[in-house]
Amino acid sequence: MTPVEQKLHDARRRHDHEINVAAFAPNPPMDRRTCRKCRSTLTMAEVIEKHCIRCAEIVAEVRRDLL
After folding, report:
1. pLDDT the model gives residue 11
2. With 0-12 CB in 10 A as exposed, 13-18 as middle and 19+ as buried, what is 52?
3. Separation between Cα atoms, residue 14 and residue 19, nearest integer Å
4. Which pTM value belongs to this model?
5. Its domain of life (predicted)?
6. Residues 15-25: what's their mean pLDDT?
7. Which of 14, 24, 37, 46 is the most buried if burial means most Cβ atoms within 10 Å?
């Protein structure tokens, strides 16, 4: 195996390992998957970012009304 082929092989194995780890990672508990303010279900991106987009939109609408 050439050095380039070895690097590609190693990169592919790392990628496959990361995908498998992500696929079998435990789900967050239910209390972390719902917004505490509006009680809506959070998307995975919202869970990762730790904020609710719907609450942010409500705050933006209220601010627009006040201006």
Report:
1. 92
2. buried
3. 9
4. 0.39
5. Bacteria
6. 78
7. 46
